[in-house]
Design goal:
Largest sheet: 6 strands, mixed
Helix content: 40-55%
Structural class: alpha/beta
CATH topology of the largest domain: Rossmann fold
Radius of gyration: 19 Å
Strand order of the largest sheet: 3-8-7-4-5-6
Oligomer: single chain
CATH class of the largest domain: Alpha Beta
Strand content: 15-25%
CATH architecture of the largest domain: 3-Layer(aba) Sandwich
């Protein structure tokens, strides 16, 4: 059963290639676009202050990509600050950008969850009083981890590295959406953001999703899909291998039923 990958276009292409290499057919219907912020001066200022920070928290691989795009020529990650993140994809992006693995703090690849709570479990035992933290994120974001650090005495600042935009599907995308609505039992959606799920409400405001099924990479995303009306929503780890395995198990269950 083919997956509908809803990540931003560039990421969706990579995911489809990896999924297909694992034997899982997939097609792309990006429901979210990622773009650079219109004014990069705050990012450049953050780079100038980087050595004086204790922790830089990156909310996603997109945050890493757009933050490092504004690095001064020849700049390297300084010895002082650690780079925090919530999942293996972002950790890999940090290492690829030149952050030494020893300075990356993230939940283990086999952790039961990849979110702010999982990262906080690693950071909470430390003394944060008087320490300086920068959160690199989109123009909006969840403040849960920043609130925990602030409660423990850390000074927390934010910088927007990218902005989320609603894409306009092309003719092929609209055709895929129509097929998925007409034949819901033949498709399995893959959601990686609540904003992407919400975009379906705009694209198909009168759709009946009760016979549609989805995999979601976080409980909040799964809940958004259920609120939209998806009849069967299951959690999956945010890796192509885990998704392919879960999709195969889901398909086998459907066939047996």
């Amino acid at each position: 059963m083919p997956l509908i990958v809803t990540r931003p276009a560039a990421q969706a292409a990579d995911w489809m290639q990896m999924l297909q290499a694992l034997g899982q057919p997939a097609q792309a219907l990006p429901l979210l676009d990622i773009a650079a912020v219109p004014e990069p001066a705050p990012l450049r200022a953050a780079w100038q202050a980087l050595a004086g920070l204790d922790l830089v928290m990156f909310v996603s691989a997109n945050a890493v990509i757009h933050f490092f795009a504004q690095a001064p020529a020849g700049a390297r990650w300084p010895a002082g600050p650690r780079a925090g993140c919530t999942g293996p994809g972002t950790a890999a992006a940090l290492r690829a950008a030149g952050v030494p693995a020893a300075q990356v703090v993230a939940p283990a690849p086999d952790a039961p969850s990849f979110d702010s709570e999982a990262l906080w479990a690693l950071l909470a035992p430390e003394d944060w009083a008087g320490r300086h933290v920068l959160v690199v994120r989109g123009e909006e974001g969840r403040n849960w981890l920043a609130d925990r650090l602030s409660e423990r005495g850390a000074a927390v600042d934010f910088v927007a590295a990218y902005r989320r935009c609603a894409p306009r599907p092309d003719a092929a995308g609209l055709e895929l959406l129509a097929r998925a609505l007409a034949e819901p039992a033949d498709w399995l959606w893959l959601f990686s953001s609540s904003e992407g799920v919400a975009q379906l409400r705009t694209l198909a405001p009168d759709a009946d999703w009760s016979r549609s099924s989805a995999l979601a990479s976080h409980p909040r995303i799964a809940q958004t899909a259920r609120e939209l009306g998806f009849g069967d929503v299951r959690l999956t780890a945010p890796s192509p291998t885990a998704v392919a395995l879960q999709a195969a198990e889901w398909s086998a269950g459907q066939a047996a039923g």
